[in-house]
Amino acid sequence: MTSPRIAILGAGSMGGAILRGLVGSEVAAAGITVTNRTAEKARDLAELDGVTSIALESQPTGNADAAATADLVLIGVKPATVPDLLREIAPHLKHGTIVVSLAAGVTVATFESILGADVSVVRSMPNTPAFVGKAVTGIAAGTAASSEQMSLVRALFETCGEVLEVPETKIDALSTISGSGPAYVFLLIEELTKAAVAKGFTIDEARRMVEQTFIGATALLDASDDDPAELRRRVTSPNGTTERAVAVLQDANLDQVFARATDAALARARELAASS
């Protein structure tokens, strides 16, 4: 199945990002149906080529209607509302439908216990750079997902970035790195921008310096065969200013800070899984 009929139930932030990657791709040649709660959000998505957009406030059965005609269904609602949505659509899914979770912390077992054996489940964890085609998405097969179905799901997510196939036992850990990772990067940019402003630069000057530095550094990393440690060493002249700054950062035990931060995110993912 190279061109499935696709439904995205809850095409909000992440679902909407995936949608924009799919529009115009070969994977979505058979068309995409999306649902949102409000007519306003539905109107925005209806302007995209090949997209049928449903507002649940005017079509309350929209989720079931969209799922009933789809070969591949992406679940993009908030984790707490996933079980209710699955119970709503379960009676309407065709045999062999692939259901892909975008929800953090909701396990394959939860999906399979509600949807039954006729449906193949795949759990995924994309990140927000999907908006610009630069996502990292982890995918994990459920018990019934075939290699052919996994190839199709991989092709879907490759329309908006890189894909890693991992066992489900690693999906929560992956979410603490690539899933939450953009927030860590943006926090570093925020704090370095504050430091620039404190040194007398305007907010506009500070943002231009800091944001372009991050963009340039990651572009250099992408274009280089060297690892980040080697690229860092090239910037850090012996007894120079950068060496002094890096020493301060290393004295802050950043390795331990990131370990604690990702451990906290992992603990929360497990809480979500336990409550679903």
UniProtKB/TrEMBL annotation:
Gene behind this protein: proC
Lineage: Bacteria, Bacillati, Actinomycetota, Actinomycetes, Micrococcales
Enzyme Commission number: 1.5.1.2
Reaction(s) this enzyme catalyzes, per UniProt: L-proline + NAD(+) = (S)-1-pyrroline-5-carboxylate + NADH + 2 H(+); L-proline + NADP(+) = (S)-1-pyrroline-5-carboxylate + NADPH + 2 H(+)
Single GO MF annotation: pyrroline-5-carboxylate reductase activity
PROSITE patterns: P5CR (PS00521)
Top-level EC class: oxidoreductase
Entry protein name: Pyrroline-5-carboxylate reductase
Keyword NADP tagged: yes
Pyrroline-5-carboxylate reductase catalytic N-terminal domain segment(s): 5-105
Coiled coil start-end: none
Localisation: Cytoplasm
